[in-house]
Amino acid sequence: MDKKDIKSMNLGELKKDMEELGEKAFRATQVYEWIHVKLVQSFDEMTNISEKLKEKLREKYNFTTLEIVDKQVSAQDGTAKYLFRLQDGNLIESVLMKYKHGNSVCISSQAGCRMGCKFCASTIAGLKRNLFPSEMLEQIYRIQRESGERVSNVVVMGTGEPFDNYDNLIRFLKLLTDEKGLHISARNITVSTCGIVPKIREFAEENMQVTLAISLHAPNNEKRKRMMPIANKYSIEELLDACRYFFEKTGRRITFEYSLADGVNDSEQDAAELISLVKGMNCHVNLIPINPVEELEFEGSAKKVAEKFKNKLEKSRINVTIRREMGRDIDGACGQLRRKFDGAVREEGTKEC
Ligand code: SAH
């Protein structure tokens, strides 16, 4: 029988298991605390657990850890990009960003991605597999432990489409916000989606105080289809309806991400169309000049063009910012570090990726 994934289990489930093992329920609380508060890397480190129980735990459970394959630190702003190897050999990446208001970790939700956005490095080699809740948590735990920096904010904006791994995402969010765990406030968590409409509605029903970020990137369906295959499945109108529903249910302001691609979606006409789309919505628009990816066709807009776009939105009283670029000197765009490594490893022929 496959071993259970202990780091993906909630306290209630662990208590039930402890009972079955003939142990007292408080043992579950201790173990849970070792995993989710003290962030240990193995059963060995659980000093108040007897050797006999540890042996039972090792037999019954897998203890998810990540191997650090590479770490790049930006000389400009201290942003640290981690390349992790999962226990089955797949690679993922996570980023630690240091802001004045606290440290933020950007995590991956899948190894690879099948959404096919035309400007994104993470999707080039397709989807390998979904990440388990434990593997999403461990990106944060490991970085907090390794860097010695307390993580206060989490963004699910790394490789993968979180709503394509919905159940694991929800379990991960519940564990991460659990007051008996690391207890990160839901308000300090952002989940970013390319716009899987039914899942946005389902997520609204969860009634979590998480921020939802929508990768909009285009002011109309025609242009969006050129950038994102998901636009063939759901129209912008359906997407915005789901966003309004999310706001109604949760009271949380939506963030729209809009990656500016030179000559594609950055004209004055595009800005005007975007304004009429989002006007009246309780939202924030985050402009991100496209980070060019070698194999892909899109180029980022010039700074001046981005500024002009922003000014136009501001004049219509839309909340808008241009995202500060962090760690440009360290393979900035999503998935680029992983991709570089994947390629290098494959060329050496040492590992099948
Ligand atoms: N799948 C999710 C989250 C991962 S991508 C989503 O689509 O939202 C996180 C954000 O980075 C998305 O807005 C995505 O569209 C954007 N992105 C991906 N590649 C980029 C690039 N090369 N330049 C700028 N933004 C990019």
Descriptive notes:
- The structure is a single chain.
- α4 (133-147) packs across α5 (166-177), α6 runs parallel beside α8 (236-250) and α9 runs parallel beside α10.
- α6 links the parallel β10 (189-193) and β11.
- The protein has three domains: 4-62, Orthogonal Bundle (DNA polymerase, domain 1); 65-186, TIM Barrel, CATH 3.20.20; 194-322, TIM Barrel, CATH 3.20.20.70.
- The strands form three sheets. Strands 3-4-5-6-9-10-11-12-13-14 form a ten-stranded mixed sheet, with helices on both faces. A two-stranded parallel sheet has the order 1-2. Strands 7-8 form a two-stranded antiparallel ribbon.
- It has eleven helices and 14 strands.
- The chain is an alpha/beta fold and 353 residues long.
- S-adenosyl-L-homocysteine binds at residues 115, 117, 119-120, 157, 161, 192-194, 215, 257, 259, 288, 290-291, 293, 333-334.
Bound molecules: S-adenosyl-L-homocysteine
The CATH homologous superfamily of the largest domain is named Aldolase class I
- Tally of DSSP β-strands: 14
Reported by name, the CATH topology of the largest domain is: TIM Barrel
Order of helices and strands: EHHHEEEEEEEHEHEHEHHEHEHEH
Draw up the topology in text.
Elements: E1 4-5, H1 11-20, H2 25-36, H3 51-60, E2 61-62, E3 67-73, E4 80-85, E5 91-99, E6 102-106, E7 110-112, E8 127-130, H4 133-147, E9 151-156, H5 166-177, E10 189-193, H6 197-206, E11 211-215, H7 221-227, H8 236-250, E12 254-260, H9 268-278, E13 283-289, H10 303-315, E14 319-322, H11 336-348
Parallel strand pairs: 1-2, 6-9, 9-10, 10-11, 11-12, 12-13, 13-14
Antiparallel strand pairs: 3-4, 4-5, 5-6, 7-8
Helix pairs in contact: 1-2, 4-5, 6-8, 9-10
This protein binds S-adenosyl-L-homocysteine.
